Known about the structure:
The protein is built from 17 helices and 17 strands. The chain is an alpha/beta fold.
Amino acid sequence: MYIVQIASECAPVIKAGGLGDVVYGLSRELSLQQHTVEIVLPKYDCMRYDHIWGLHEAYRDLWVPWYGGAIHCSVHCGWVHGQLCFFIEPHSEDFYFDRGHYYGSDDDEMRFAFFSKAALEFLLQSNKRPNVIHCHDWQTGLVPVLLYEIYQYQGMGNQRVCYTIHNFKHQGIGGVKTLWATGLNRESYYFNNERLQDNFNPFAINYMKGGIVYSNHVTTVSPHHAWEAQYTDIGYGLGHTLHFHQDKFSGILNGINYEFWNPEVDSQIPYHYTPEDLTGKRLNKKALRDRLLLQDVDKPIVSFIGRLDQQKGVHLVQHAIYYSLFKNAQFVLLGSATESGINDHFWREKVHLNNNPNAHLEIGFNEELAHLIYAGSDIIVVPSNYEPCGLTQIIGLKYGTVPVVRGVGGLVNTVFDRDYDPNKPLEERNGFVFYQGDYPALESALGRAIDLWYEKSNDFEQLALQGMKYDNSWNLPGAEYVALYDRIRHK
Length: 491
Ligand code: ADP
C-alpha cells in the first residue's frame, strides 16, 4: 500500500509532544511492514536539521492557490532516520514557518490551513496518488475537506483519508477568511452544522470537525479515550459530532518506537540494561544524580516528564514534588510551559528548591535528559486531568520505571494497578492508579509506590520487570492501522 502522512510534526526533527513520536513511529512500522510511506511536513526554520539526511530541493515551482492568487513554494526532500520526508517552504511575506516556533502565532489557523492546501497541491502536482492519506490533529483537519470538495475533481478521486485526533482540546477555529483563502468559498454551504460550522460558535468554522465529517475513518489514540470523547466533556464540544459519525470512529492505542525508546540500545543513556540484568539501571540512577547534583543516598527517585499544562494536572505535579520529599524520596521534573502563569509558577518552585539535595526541576525541552530520567528514576508520575494516550508511562514501563497514573484516557489502557486491578492477574500488573483529581487520591497511589520501594524492594523490582515485559511497540497498532486502511480503501 502507498500511504502519505500529512502532519505538523515528525520526531525527532519536529517534535512538540507525542504527535511527533506517533507520526514517525507509525510511519517506520508501516515501512517495516513493506508499505510505501512518505511524510509531508512544513519546513520550519527551527526544526532539527541535524536529523535530516540528504536534504535537497525536490520540487522547485509549486504554486499553491491562495485567496485569488497563488503562493510560490519549494518542496525539499530528505530522510529522517530512514523515513522519506517532504518539507514545504512557502516564499511569501507571511513567513508562515519562519517564526522560531512550531505553534503559538496569532495566525496559526491560517498557517496550517495553508499547509493543508499546499500538501494536497503538492500531491496533485507531483502526481503522487497514495491509496491512503493519513492526517493528524487540527492542523490538517482541512485536508479531507479540501480533498473531497476540490481535489477529487482534479484527479484525486481515489484517495481515502484516515484522520487521527491526538488532542481534542485544540480544534482549529477559523472563519470566512479560511474559506476564501483555501478556495472553499461558499460560506452558506460550509457554515452548516453538518459540515464545518462550530458546534458552539455559529460564526466560526472548526477544522477538526471538518476532519471528522469528511474523513473516511477517524481514530483517536486509545480505546478508552474514544469512549470518553463521545460520552464525556473531554470531546470539547465534538462529542455529538463523533456520536453522529460513530460508525467510522475508533480508538487505536499508540505504540512507541523500540529502536529509540529501549534501554537495551538507547544511544542517549550511559549504561544499557535488560530485564535480565538491571545493573545498568542502577548506574544510570547514579549518573542522573551526578548530572543534576542530587544527593547519592538510598532513596527512590520519582520523576515527571511532560508539558506543564492544565491537561497534565499541574496542581498534582506540584503536590507530587512535595509529597515525594515528605515520603523521603527524591524528585526530578523535566517540563516546559507555554502558559506564562504556569511557567512563572514552576520557575518559582525551581528557585525555592534550588539548594534542596533531593529535588531538581529542569524547565525546558531536553530530549537527551528525558532519556536519562526514564532510565535513572524508579517511579514516574502521570497525574493528567485527561490523557488521550500518554507516552511517558509507556516509555517508563519499557525502562523499568514504575508508573503512578491517574485512571483516564490511554492511561487506563496501559497501566494496571498492582493492588486493585480487577481484570489483570497479579503477574500482569505494572503500576499504580488513582482516579480523583485531589491530593489524597494522588497520595494513595504514590504513597503505595514509595512504601513498596522501601519496604519490599524485591516486590518493587518484580513490578518493574512485569512492566518491562509489556509489548507496547508499534507492531500491533501498526497492523491495526493497516487493516483500517484496507477497509477504507475497499469501501
Ligand atoms: P503530549 O503529546 O500531550 O505532550 P505524550 O505523553 O503523548 O504527551 O508525549 C510526550 C512526549 O514528549 C514524550 O516523548 C516525552 O518524553 C516528550 N517530552 C515532553 N516534555 C518534554 C521535555 N520537557 N523535554 C523532553 N521531552 C519531553
